[in-house]
DNA sequence: AATGAATGAGGATTCATTCAT
DNA sequence: CATGAATGAATCCTCATTCAT
């Protein structure tokens, strides 16, 4: 593992645990195993380190979501893939995703705009799947916008509590959440193996992780 | 409004917006409209200010949840009341609840234990309702513990996006979320007016707010 | 003497002796007799301290020069007053003026523009006196612009070597320099008591110093 | 051009523009077009780089002044040569001479002594010419010591404003300044072609520059 | 010869907190 | 009650310099 990776990893861990402002440059250095001056060989500003982490995480999520939904006609399948991918990403990389979810306020205005734009683009894929599903996929829900937010928050929450050492396996977790999502959307059928398969494949391609 | 309230309010706002570590004592003073030295007439430590906010918020939530569920036999009604109350509290006091949800890491170990204990006690009421509901209320869900967490995260998420200036009214919001919850729990019926009524009443009694 | 004055004085001394970049915030604090944190009760940035010193010094010089030349018809007298005032100011406040002369490079672009504008305005008074003197005051010099610069550098140099503990008294010093200036400008007469008197008066009015 | 020369040149430029303490080792490296580590193949300490520049510049000035005055009986001619040489050196090498004039404070005590000794030796030649000129060269000035300082500051100032892109040619500039000097010293005749010629010759011999 | 990597010391500035007034 | 003044400790970051490669 390169030193740069060690720095990145230290930052992800500490930013997730103690927050950006709660993490000192000395904490980062100690966690990375180098001096605080050496830190600056591998990063720009502390804030650039943060935004880099966020961008990478969101880029990957967006790429995965696009791969999982691109060319898929069935909105139910798209939605299931999105949910599964989101849940798996948050369960596998809880630190990264918590940083993305919680530390936006620490960004400068300019960078914040970029990050929020990425997130909006990502959520747009959810909106499309939900709206399509209502039109022609058997979804029934008043206030689809509210339901979308409820879904997203529910799935993102996984990063706040999931532990690989717990009793629930990842595959089962994803299946459970897709079931919840389909129920929330009033779908008659609560399963969609195709969507789950797609998510597994994308997870392997984009994150390099196999369940 | 007393100065103490002004300080409390300033802290809630800033801790919610910029995080505990991102908020300086001078920021607090400016927002409260007094000098940073005067601040210390109305608070102990900065951390005590934080824990006070959290405790009060959680105390109220716990009190409300107890009142809403105490003596209620039907687990479906209890669950609906809990969801509605949680959603309403988070929509009405988004700043307070975001502080509770996001700034636990800033607490000292001792205080954190107390706060987490309160939260656990609160979540215990949810667990009870769900477990009872599975046993004898028509709930069907594998992994009830996961479902509980999904529910809580979904409902807490309201504080992150709800705006009173948006198109959705509070009463409708609560109804929507209780519906989502009942769907997630596989309940045959997706409504429970009694549970909503209880929540409204408790909200008035404990929070002093009427919809 | 107020603490703010002590800070200002410390800065003037150290900036003059060791340069802006050669002076640390801790040096300033020590010289002012307070802690480096307390320093920030009495100043903004270190650079603002610098620009403040420069502005005040240049403001006074400009004010003095205007008072000494305003309404004076004879360009010879004006020039003599300017030289005398400049020399006296630099002899009496060598530290301040050396800061003005040597530390412009340490200013930010925006502030530098303001300071240079003040200096240009000041030098404009010299140009006017010299040009007028050539036209109708008996001055003869090729390249009046060069002569102006030579005069200014010669007079400013006083701040680099004059010591009140040396053998030359201030009044005599001013007289000597006005003589040199008139010679440089080819003036037939090398004295101009009126100009010197004006300078003495302005020095008393604007600087509050009497020879 | 060797790398060492490039380093030297970079240092001269940056020390002159931003001061010794305002110039970082990284600035030097960038300006020289090498890495900051490589810098240390061509220099000792940053301070040694500074003192080297000063010494070389002063050595050359001293050597030139000696050649220009050695064996010249007429103090008027000696003075004119000194003025011309000084002005030309400062106009041709404004950066070097500004470093010599402005950065003495950045030297360590020991090195400073050496540099100041060189400068004193150099100024001694001026003193001698002036004093001799008073005794038997037609110079008249009260306070010859003050006049010497005035002359030196006036001539050194050239480095602060002269631009080869300006309207005044070097030869003319030197002539103008020798004229000013002779006027300041009360010399009846304001020209001395022999002194100027000597200066030109020495400039060619010692600096390798032809006007 | 050249340089990435490394760092202890120090740069300016802000921190939360206390206290005399 | 209110606050200017004060500060030790900490903030992020850059410094000049060394060294293994």
Automatic annotation (TrEMBL), chains A, B, C, D:
SUPFAM superfamilies: Homeodomain-like, Tetracyclin repressor-like, C-terminal domain
InterPro entries associated with the record: Homeodomain-like_sf (IPR009057), HTH-type_TetR-like_transc_reg (IPR050109), HTH_TetR (IPR001647), KstR2_TetR_C (IPR041490), Tet_transcr_reg_TetR-rel_C_sf (IPR036271)
Highest rank taxon of the organism: Bacteria
Molecular function terms, GO-annotated: DNA-binding transcription factor activity; transcription cis-regulatory region binding
Pfam (any one): TetR_N
Domain HTH tetR-type: 1-61
Keywords associated with the record: DNA-binding
Feature: DNA-binding region: 24-43
PROSITE patterns the UniProt entry points to: HTH_TETR_2
Protein name (record): TetR/AcrR family transcriptional regulator
Organism of this sequence: Amycolatopsis acidiphila
């Amino acid at each position: 593992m390169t030193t740069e990776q060690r720095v990145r990893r230290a930052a992800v861990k500490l930013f997730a645990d103690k927050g950006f402002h709660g993490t000192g440059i000395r904490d980062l250095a100690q966690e990375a195993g180098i001096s605080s001056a050496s830190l600056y060989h591998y990063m720009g500003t502390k804030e650039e380190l943060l935004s880099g982490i966020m961008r990478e995480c969101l880029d990957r999520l967006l790429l995965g979501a696009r791969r999982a939904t691109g060319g898929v006609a069935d909105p139910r399948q798209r939605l299931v893939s999105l949910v599964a991918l989101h849940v798996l990403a948050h369960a596998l990389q809880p630190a990264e995703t918590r940083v993305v979810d919680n530390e936006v306020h620490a960004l400068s205005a300019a960078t914040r705009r970029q990050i929020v734009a990425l997130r909006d683009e990502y959520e747009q894929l959810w909106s499309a799947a939900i709206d399509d599903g209502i039109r022609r996929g058997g979804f029934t829900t008043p206030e689809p916008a509210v339901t979308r937010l409820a879904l997203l928050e529910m799935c993102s929450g996984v990063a706040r509590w999931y532990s690989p050492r717990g009793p629930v396996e990842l595959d089962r977790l994803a299946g459970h959440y897709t079931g919840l999502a389909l129920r929330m959307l009033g779908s008659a059928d609560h399963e969609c193996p195709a969507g789950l398969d797609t998510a597994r494949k994308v997870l392997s391609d984009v994150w390099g992780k196999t369940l």
